[in-house]
Fold this sequence. Notes:
The structure holds two protein chains of two kinds. Chain A is α/β, with parallel strands linked by helices. Chain A has helices spanning 59-66, 89-95, 117-128, 137-147, 154-165, 171-174, 184-197, 214-231, 242-248, 266-271, 276-284, 363-368, and strands at 17-28, 31-43, 48-53, 74-76, 79-82, 85-86, 100-103, 202-206, 234-239, 251-256, 259-265, 340-341, 350-353, 356-359. In chain A, helix 3 packs parallel to helix 7 (184-197). Chain A starts with 16 loop residues before the first strand and ends in a 21-residue tail after the last helix. The relative contact order of chain B is 0.13. Chain B has an eight-stranded mixed beta sheet, with helices on both faces. Chain B has a four-stranded antiparallel beta sheet with strand order 2-1-4-5. Chain B is α/β, with parallel strands linked by helices. Helices cover 30% and strands 18% of the residues of chain B. In chain B, a hairpin with a 2-residue loop joins strand 4 and strand 5. The complex binds iron/sulfur cluster (2 copies).
Amino acid sequence: MTPRTPTQGSTREEPLLEVENLRTSFPTDRGDVTAVDGISFGVDTGEIFGIVGESGSGKSVTALSILGLAADGEVEADAIRFRGEELSTREMSAVRGGEISMIFQDPMSSLNPVMTVGEQIAEVVRHHGEVGESTGILSELRRKYVTGTSDSSRSWQRAVELLDTVGIPDPEQRANEYPHQLSGGMKQRVMIAQALAGDPSLIIADEPTTALDVTIEAQILNELFELRDEFGVSIVLITHDLAVVRETCDRVAVMYAGELMETARTETLFDEPTHPYTKGLLRSIPRVDDDREWLNAIDGTVPDPFNRPSGCPFRDRCDAAFELCSEPLDRYDATGTDHEVRCHLQHDAVDIDDGEPVVEGSLHSRLDGTETEPLDERSGVVEPGGERQ
Amino acid sequence: MTDGSDPLLVAEDVKKHFTVEQGMLDRLFSDSEVVHAVDGVSLEVATEETLGVVGESGCGKSTLGRTLARLHDPTEGVIRFDGEDISSLSGARLKELRKDVQMIFQDPLSSLNPRKAVGEIVGKPLEVHDIATGEEKTARVRELFEEVGLNPDTRHRYPHEFSGGQRQRIGIARALAVEPKLIIADEPVSALDVSVQAQIINLMKRLQAEYQLSYVFIAHDLSVVKHVSDRVAVMYLGEVVETGPTDDIFERPEHPYTRSLLHAIPSVEGETGRREILLEGNPPSPIDPPTGCRFHTRCPEYIDGECAKVDPELTAVDGADTSAPAHRVACHWLEHDSSERAAQSPFDRDERGDGAVDTGLTDD
Lengths: 389, 364
Ligand code: SF4
Ligand code: SF4
């Protein structure tokens, strides 16, 4: 991997969504917290792109930032492009609900408890589609509280159609029900129907199946596949669940402490994980077909957002950490290749000799002319090479 | 593991029913509704054994856990601990039981008093049960902190200052304080990040060996349950539908529900692509469970004329002995010839010859 290759050298077709160097921080009593620290990625048309990370990794904030929903967040980016057009975060909020829509983990957070589900979907249809129905405040209020949307109106029919599309049985009847009358899986489907109502080309789904049982999860994920296959919708799937990523996504980015550690095609990521964090995650999961007595846990915890280590954010927990790791990772910024790994082990000047990383010559000065900080005195810097089993 | 001696915990036909809280009008105009949360569960747990309990949300597994720990009174049935009937203990004798049976919860934060320093939280049971006070207590708390991998100097901090994984360690230290024989863990790792899950699972396994603990490990994550359990009980709508040694359950599942669950597990290995759905819809309401086999409304192997009428009993599968820890299944297919079943089962039996259900994914 060569340092600082500009993103423009992308080998892929122009992505539907392109995010360059996104940074989001939140002011708090104890100072600013950087939740997203300079991430770049692209999502192709008809692609399911996964962002996988643990809690606090910044994966949800990434979604909210893109959509202009990061309340009190300070969002900066070199560029956010949708269909090749650069959009300000304000403009992003304008396409929200229409071209880009979002599905949340908890359907109740985006469903109105006192409106029937059909009504809620019909409302989105009217606002974003061309159904020739008045969307003035008064007519909406009247529909909402007095008459309800007429069963014969185009928007209502479309709502029923959408409920049918997402696999809700008896959609005509269900459309008249309130969210609390539906099961968790059904509510999730309603939210998907609502997300579809604006006829989006991109859906950002944040942990859409986390609260659901495995059997219902499979059903919902299959609905997402259908959307992609039938309507060519692109999907950004944000999740902590590697198994879900594995079976759903075309490409995936692994996020840790606000940074993308590894971005690759899904098969590549699972078959040849390269970043020590990705490897560690995959080893820590129990599998139905393994007979390990002990799981290979990653020791330690994610860095305190107020006290992030300099350099690689994973270095306090990384088995492979070596002298270079206190240097920032930003020199490995998006290369536009199919497999991006932000880890100093990938540097051209680093060789692995007998499992030990060896830095060639005067690398530090070559990197940016500064001296390295003294070697971190962590306990447990064992076995560089990361093959602790 | 089972060593021929009496099991530590035995449940016989345990039921826990709740009456639904209803509005005034409902109370006037209808009979009160009863949730059959746990509806006749029999199981046993041996010393130093882990029994995994799995099932979808609402299957009654949490209620079962709380009933076994006697946080709930069982509506019917007998629970025996160490040979003693504990089903209706109360007062001082129930308090005494708490020394032997402890619980760990899914969300440690909601089970830890936010206004108490974590050292106090862990030390409380020592006082309550007159195990240690003063200096001795402090020393023991420090020891417990170290035992679960926490820095003893952090004991003056409050629960919110800890990460999810650390809070679960605190919950474990509190449970461990009284040196219990049995810990009932209700989804202890499902709220944790994967890398932290592995830490907590390893910790629980280490403590089990060190203290000869028995666990009832309640979880919806089948891979986790497979990893930690010696035996497994699969629950559906308040009943155990299949139980037996872990390998039997995962390699030779007999109940259509177990097979469906295993089929639905996403995996970080094997083929990618969509999962074939063999289990549609949601479980029916435990207020008015289906007649006959409770699974018949969703069963992919439904037998016409039998399943909706007669409730199948837990029966030992061929080859298993009839003792309680053996592989047992509640399904009418056990009364039929296996070739007859294979002919119409949607579960692909793979060619390995061990009869394992192919939990791989279909090409699509
Ligand atoms: S080797 Fe260094 S740069 Fe790579 S993950 Fe480990 S700590 Fe980070
Ligand atoms: S008894 Fe019938 S309905 Fe019940 S699990 Fe067996 S085949 Fe299915």
